[in-house]
Amino acid sequence: MALALNVNGTSYTVDVEPETPLLWVLRDNIGLTGTKYGCGIARCGFCTVHVDGQAVKSCQTKVSATVGTRVTTIEGLSPDSTHPVQVAWIEHSVPQCGYCQSGQIMAAAALLAKRARPTDAEIDEAMADNLCRCGTYVRIRSAIHRAAELGAR
Amino acid sequence: MNQINVTRREFIITSAGAAGGLAIGVFLAPMANAAVVNPMPWQSPNDKEGLELSQWIVIDPSGIITVVQPHAEMGQGAMTSTAMMLNEELQADWKMIRVQYADANRHVLNNELWVTMASGGSNVVKARHPHIMQAGASARERLKEAAAQTWGVPRTQVTAKDSVLTSGTRRGTYAEFATRAAGIKLAEEPKRKTPEQFTFLGTSVPRLDVPLKVNGAAKYAHDIRLPGMVYAAVYANPVPWGGSPKFDFNAIKARPGVLAAVELKAVAGKRGLADMQNGVAVVADTYYRAKTALDLMPIEWDYGPNAAMSNQTLFDTAYKKLGEKGAVRKDDPAALAAIAAAPADKKVGGDFHRPYEAHARAEPITTTVDIKADGTVDVYVGAQNPPAVMTAVVEQLGIEPKNCFVRRQFLGCGFGSSSGTFAAKQAAQIAKEVGRPVKLIWSREEDIRNSKHAPAYAARFEAAVGPDGLPTAIFTRTFGANSSDNTITDMPYEIALRHHERHADLEQANIPITTHRAPGTGLVGFASEQFIDDLARKGGWNPLDWRIAMTKTKADYQLVLKTLKEKAGYRMDLPRGEGMGVAVVESHGTIAGAVATVTVSRRGQLRVEKVVLAVDSGHVINPLNGTEQVEGSVVFGLAHLLGGGLEFQKGAVANSNFDTYRLLRIGDMPTVEVHFALSGGEKWGGLGEPGVPPTAPSVANAIFAATGKRVRSTPLTLHDLSWA
Lengths: 153, 724
What we know:
The complex is a heterodimer of chains A (153) and B (724).
Chain A: E1 2-7, E2 10-15, H1 22-30, E3 48-51, E4 54-57, E5 70-72, H2 84-91, H3 101-114, H4 120-126, H5 137-152
Helix pairs in contact in A: 2-5
Chain B: E1 3-5, H1 8-20, E2 36-37, E3 52-54, E4 57-59, E5 65-69, H2 78-90, E6 97-101, H3 104-109, H4 123-126, H5 129-151, E7 159-161, E8 164-167, E9 170-173, H6 174-182, E10 230-236, E11 246-247, E12 258-264, E13 279-284, H7 287-296, E14 299-300, H8 311-322, E15 327-330, H9 333-341, E16 347-354, E17 366-371, E18 377-381, H10 386-397, E19 404-408, H11 422-434, E20 438-441, H12 444-450, E21 457-465, E22 471-479, H13 486-489, E23 497-503, H14 519-538, H15 543-549, H16 555-568, E24 578-587, E25 590-600, E26 606-616, H17 623-642, E27 648-649, E28 652-653, E29 671-676, H18 692-707
Parallel strand pairs in B: 2-6, 5-6, 10-20, 18-19, 22-23, 26-29
Antiparallel strand pairs in B: 3-4, 4-5, 7-8, 8-9, 10-13, 11-14, 12-13, 15-23, 16-21, 17-18, 17-20, 21-22, 24-25, 25-26, 27-28
């Protein structure tokens, strides 16, 4: 079934089963591989993208439900890694293996869009679904605070 | 707005240049003032246009210096660390450095050209710095010699700094002299710098791979896309070494995009790290279609002889073994006699165990194999030991090693799991049978259930305490973790009489295992450092002071423990429900001590508030990355204490995904403080793992302090920590 999608400001037409998770359409059909597969059951957050500005787990989002929406992936968060979250992530040296970080960054960016100055508790709540196996949690927390500062400028 | 119609054909064409052709990578330059890493680091440098000074260094006429390094980047910072070590000697302009992977094929065919490609055991800095730094020193001296010959001056009058060679008023760049330097053989290899001469090592340098990991640019095995590539989803027999499946491909073959089902066959009697289990894969034009079809395909498994295995049977065996004499590793009948003779109130004893664990690295195991028309085979993989992958594929396909190329990716974590090579065999077999490049992705369920697991462990301790409250004799008997036996036999505490026996992990033959992050020392440390806590308390000692008193002749332990005492504010007089615990474990050449602070509610809700560590790795080449590695190690230690834990039932792993194999989340994260207490000198320890072993026992000891409950096994989700 041909579906029209808007991803990072570009229109795509994809021919897939409508129940296909957005994750696999992004990765296998469109070729945007920055969004990662980790669990397929919305329990790791590696696949987090924005649909109309809201953070969603793309592994549990049917592609058909995103027709008519604006989908943003890590590749589209900023053209040049200058989104405050990306800047803060570099400043605080957050990524280690980096595999979960697209999802972490997209979740953090969505949080900051709603809460300009989140508390630690709000960060813990918003990021609770985003697993990191390297153990960068301390830096994720500090980088979100830093991104909040940068975003306020 | 752009308008793009994505058809399979178009994506194949547009992506062919990048991933298929192995063309020269376009280096991103996200930070103008730093060295960078190729986002597709497996691509070869342009040897023809640039200039290879040695296998480690290519100097381009533009002045770009490519460091071709052998070690896997799995989050531990190998690419940055190797480039830093090399450039401490090379003295090139850091911002002109580009880092990428060395070619495994060339390594293997040329008598291990880069010495080793294996990345594990926290070894990259610890064990590899001599030859990596030598490569830099050698290249620098050859460049100096080239300039000296050109200018007609002795080499000693040429200086090298920031990619510039100078002698008096003469000046030239490394690039200008690279051609001549390539033809120079030094009569004698230069001496490497000693640590007090370092000007770059020891400074905090931002990791080079970080900018690629904030915008989706870094490529993992999971991200490979090749022209004509198809996708495979796989199930291995859920019971290790079970028989072949019966499956009905006809039931799914009409589904969209489905191409084939491929049976994967274990080789009878072969149960090594690289050997496949019996299984079946479904191949389709997308992963989603392949996985969905596999889930719908009727499969009947022959579970084989291990179908009754469970955690209960496994630990029944382990504890039975703990009651039997094992292989004697440290023989002292006097220790046994002293313990036997001690009065009951002067004896301490305890048993501990740990279950099997999944690696659950972030990136589920993914391998792409492309068997090309010219007979060469490309294997796209994130591997800790690429030559092992090469060997596996060569064996599976019956090809010549010279025709096998491992295209190395960034790894989504390592933890020892990626040295497992049987997914590469699976992918090779599937690619051979379908005649197309195949990307095999293990689902998370497959990753957790059917990986080679981290091993289980059990240990028994007994000791006698003398009149001064200090131990006179200790007896230990362990089951598993034999590679870390010296953590017990060489226990730093000055206990006069010691006897140690061990049993090999008898289940190894049935449950395939591999390493983990601090595999053995993490298991041993969990048990031994809790027992030590009991031992100190039995004698009426403060457990931190006990450790200081019992390691008096060991300067590095004294440094770590006294730093910990100074920084952590360890105390034993906290109200019930609050507690502090200490542990210290040596691993990978590094001593790491931890003091944890916890609170436990009356109902048993645990919160780890803070972990303070003191670490002696001798030297730290990059304190920023070193600190990150210790922070990450704390998370790893906590993750498999608070959660994790594989549960075997009816021969198979009953956990399946992150809902049933629960790992640490940000909300559980304590404050972490890392203090380096460096003894320097000849000591070079690792940092990727040593923070793991003391973390769990320090928290367990804090739980004991808070509740009086001893944590004899993991995960804590199975324990009731409530107190009245």
